[in-house]
Design a protein that fits this description.
- The chain is 60% helix and 0% strand.
- The chain has 11 helices and no strands.
- α3 (136-157) packs antiparallel against α6.
- The longest helix is centred in the middle third of the chain and has 36 residues, at 164-199.
C-alpha cells in the first residue's frame, strides 16, 4: 500500500541519517577546526557542555588516546607559554573564538593551585573561581546510575524461578550497566585524578577519597560480573542470590560516592578543566557502550532526568537525531523495558 511504502521510505531515510551521524569519519587535519572529542552520539558519558554547538560526525577511534592536558588547540593556547602557541595564531583571533559555552581555561599560577588563595573552587577573597567548562554531564550520568542500579534488585526478584530467558534479558541489562560504570570510573582513574591534583592541590584529599571509593566499587562490580553468567543460564533463585548481594554492595557504594563526587569534585572540575577535557569522558563512554545498546542506554539516561529527558534532548542532540529517537529509539527502549519486567 502507498502508506506502507511511505513509512518504509521514512524509516530508511531516518536509519541512513543515524548511520551517517554515528559513523566514524575519516581523520581530518587539525586545521579543519573539527573538535572530535565533543562530537557524535555520546553514550554513557553522552553529554557535552558544548554539544549544542557541536553537531558534528562521531569522533575517530583515535580519540581514545586523548589525555587530559594534552596538545592544546587555539582555544586554550593563550594560557600557555609562547613557545607552545601556533606560529601564525594572532591573539586577536584567539579572543574571537571564545563563546558562552566554550571558553578558554583560566591560567594557573606556577604552584598549580587555583587562582587566588582560597580553597578549591574559590578565587581571591573566597569568591567563586571563574568557570572554565560545563561538567553537568557528571550529574546527569550519576542520575542514571542511581536509578538503574536502584531498580536492579527488583528486576532480579521479578524473574520467575527457572525462567532462564527472562533472567538472560535482565542479566544482559545489568551487564550493560556494569560496563558503563566500569568505563566511567576507568576514565576518571586514568585521566582525571592526576590532572585535578596537579592543577588544584587543595583537592588532593578529595581525590584520594575518590580513589578509595572506586576501589570499593570495583570489588562489588567484579562480584556482579562473576555472578551474572550462572544466573542468566539458569534463572534459579540460588544463582540470583550472589547477584543480589553484589547489587546491594554497588548501591551502598554509590550512595556514598556519587554525592561526594558531585559536592567536592565537579565544582573543581569546572574551574580547572577545559571543555575539551571534560568532553573526552563522553567519547570514552561512547566507545565502551556494548553493540546494540545505544537506545537502551540513551533511554535510561533520559528516564533518570527530572523532566523525563526533554531538556537533555534539546541541549545535547540536534533536531534530526531527536526525531530519530522519537520515531525509532523510544520504541526500542519501551520494548526493552517491557522485556525487563516480563511483559513481552
Amino acid at each position: 500500500m502507498p502508506s506502507d511504502a511511505a513509512s518504509l521510505a521514512a524509516a530508511v531515510a531516518a536509519g541512513s541519517l543515524v548511520v551517517s551521524w554515528l559513523r566514524v569519519p575519516e581523520r581530518v587535519p587539525a586545521s579543519a577546526g573539527t573538535d572530535p572529542f565533543g562530537a557524535g552520539l555520546l553514550a554513557v558519558g553522552f553529554v557535552s557542555g558544548t554539544a549544542l554547538a557541536r553537531w558534528l560526525p562521531a569522533a575517530p577511534s583515535g580519540a581514545r588516546t586523548h589525555r587530559l592536558g594534552g596538545a592544546p588547540d587555539a582555544r586554550v593556547r593563550r594560557t600557555l607559554p609562547r613557545r607552545h602557541r601556533g606560529r601564525n595564531v594572532a591573539r586577536s583571533s584567539i579572543r574571537r573564538r571564545r563563546s558562552e559555552h566554550d571558553m578558554a581555561a583560566t591560567a594557573l599560577p606556577p604552584s598549580g593551585d587555583l587562582p587566588g588563595s582560597g580553597p578549591s573552587g574559590t578565587g581571591p577573597g573566597g569568591r567563586p573561581a571563574a568557570k572554565t567548562c560545563d561538567a553537568r554531564g557528571m550529574v546527569e550520568i550519576h542520575r542514571m546510575y542511581r536509578a538503574t542500579f536502584g531498580e536492579a534488585p527488583s528486576l532480579v526478584e521479578g524473574v520467575t524461578e527457572g525462567d532462564a530467558p527472562h533472567a538472560d534479558t535482565v542479566g544482559d541489562h545489568l551487564s550493560m550497566l556494569s560496563v558503563s560504570l566500569h568505563a566511567h570510573h576507568e576514565f576518571e582513574d586514568e585521566h582525571l585524578w592526576d590532572t585535578l591534583e596537579d592543577r588544584a592541590p587543595a583537592c588532593t584529599t578529595h581525590v584520594e577519597r575518590m580513589k578509595e571509593q572506586h576501589a570499593v566499587m570495583l570489588v562489588h562490580l567484579n562480584e556482579l560480573d562473576a555472578a551474572l553468567p550462572s544466573w542468566r543460564r539458569s534463572g534459579r533463585a540460588t544463582d540470583a542470590a550472589p547477584v543480589l548481594a553484589a547489587l546491594g554492595g554497588v548501591n551502598d557504594a554509590l550512595a556514598v560516592h556519587l554525592p561526594d563526587e558531585e559536592d567536592n569534585i565537579v565544582p573543581v572540575m569546572e574551574t580547572v578543566l577545559t571543555q575539551k577535557e571534560v568532553d573526552a569522558a563522553s567519547v570514552h563512554g561512547r566507545q565502551a557502550t556494548p553493540k546494540g545498546k545505544t537506545w537502551a542506554q540513551l533511554g535510561a539516561i533520559l528516564a533518570a532526568q527530572p523532566d523525563g529527558g526533554d531538556a537533555w534532548l534539546r541541549f545535547h542532540l540536534p533536531p534530526p537525531v531527536r526525531a530519530v529517537w522519537r520515531l525509532v529509539g523510544r520504541r526500542a527502549y519501551v520494548r526493552n523495558r517491557a522485556e525487563l519486567v516480563g511483559r513481552s
